Amino acid sequence: MTEIHGTCDTRFAGVRDAFYENFTARGDVGATVAVYLDDRPVVDLWGGYLDAERTRPWPKDGIVNVWSLGKAMTALCLIGLFDTGDLSPDDKVVRYWPEFGRGGKDEMTLAMALAHRGGLPGIERALPDDAFFHWDTMTQALADQTPWWEPGTAHGYHANTYGFLNGEIVRRVTGQRVGKYFREHIAGPLNADFYIGIHQRDADRVADLIFSPPPPDFKRSVPLPPGKPADDDHLGKMRWMVYNNPTLDPSVLNSFEWRAAEFPSTSPQANARAVAKIFGLMASSVGGKPHAHIPGQAALLDAITPRSDGPDLVIERPTKFGLGLQLSQPDRPLGTSPRAFGHYGNGGHLGFGDPDVPLGFAYHMNHQGFAWRDPRNIALVDAVYAAL
C-alpha cells in the first residue's frame, strides 16, 4: 500500500482520495500535489517512491523533472522586468542582443519571443549530441538561425529552444544566467523548491523518471515525425529538426548532468509545493493583491492576454499562449476559469493559477504519461474544483 504524507484541509479530502487513487488505479509510482487557496496552502501531499525499484521513499522535499513548467518560470523573469519598467514587450530583441538580428530577425520583439512567434523552434545546422548542455552553443545557433517563418506572422511551440532564447535575453539585460536570476529574484525569496539546474547537494532528493510503453490502443494526438523529409518540405523539415537536432537521449534523462544543466525549457527540477505557491501568488496578483517578488497586476494582466491562439505550426494542433504562459482552451483547460494560466509539462505534469478563485495548483510525478492532459491530473483538478 502506498503511504500518503503531508497535509490536506478537510474541505479538500476529495483531492487526497484522488491522489491515492492515482497510485492504486492510475499507475503513479511517486508524486506530489499541492493547492494554494487565497495565498494559503490547503493541500500539500506527497507519496510513493523516487525510483522504479521502490527502494527510496519520496521525501517531503523530493523534486522531479517538471519539463515545460520551466518555460513559464523563464517567462516570469521577463514579466517581472516588464513590471519594473526595465523592459517592454515591444522592445526589439536586438536592442539587448545585437548579433541576434542576423537572418532576418532584427524586427523580432520580446513579446514574439515569449509567445512562440519567433520562428525559432529548431536549428537547421547539425548540432552536437550534447548541445543542450552548452548554453553558448545553443544561443549562438539561435543567433545564426534564419527563422522558419517571418517572426510575428504565426506561432509554433518552441519545445527545446524557448529557454535558451528567452533566457539569453534575461542574461543580456541583467548580467545573470536565467537559472541564477530566477533563484535569486523569485524562487529563493519565495522559499520555492524550483531549480533551473540543481547542485550536487540536491542530487539525493531527485526522483528518477520512469517510462513505460504506451497502451496498445494509444494514438498520439501529434504523430512523431517519420524519416527526415525532403529539403523542399519546409515545415516538415522544421518539425523534424525540432525533435531530432539533437535528439533527447533517454539514457541521459536520469543523469546528474541532465539535472544540473541550465536547460530552462526542459530539464528544471521542482515539486508541487513550489509550483502551486508561485502560480497561486500570481493568481492573487492578477486579482489586485500584490506580492513581493511577483509581478504586479498590470504586468500579469498583459501577460495573460492572448498573443498566440490557433493553429500551431510545430505541433499541428491549436495552442494558446500569452507572454510565455499557456492559457486555457476547451481541449486543454486549466481548471474552469477562462482566465486561468499556467503550463503543462511532458508526461502529464501541470501547474496553473486561477485568478477567479484565486488558487494555484500543481501536480508532478516520476512515472511519465503520454499526453499533457493525463487521467491523473484530470482527476486531481476535478477534485479541487468539486471542493470549492
Can you walk me through this structure?
It contains eleven helices and twelve strands. By secondary structure, it is of the alpha+beta class. The strands form three sheets. The protein has a seven-stranded antiparallel β-sheet with strand order 1-3-2-12-11-10-9, sandwiched between helices. Strand 10 and strand 11 form a beta hairpin. It is globular and about 55 Å long.
- Summarize the helix and strand pattern as letters: EHEEEHHHHHEHHEHHEEEEEEH
Q: Low-confidence parts lasting 5 or more residues at pLDDT below 50?
A: none
Assembly form of the protein: single chain
Cα gyration radius (Å): 20 Å
Strand order of the largest sheet: 1-3-2-12-11-10-9
Relative helix content: 25-40%
Percent of residues in β-strands: 5-15%
Distance between the termini: 29 Å
Provide a count of the helices.
Answer: 11
Tell me the total number of β-strands: 12
Arithmetic mean pLDDT: 96
Question: Which geometry do the CA atoms define?
Answer: globular
Largest sheet: 7 strands, antiparallel
- Based on secondary structure, the structural category is alpha+beta
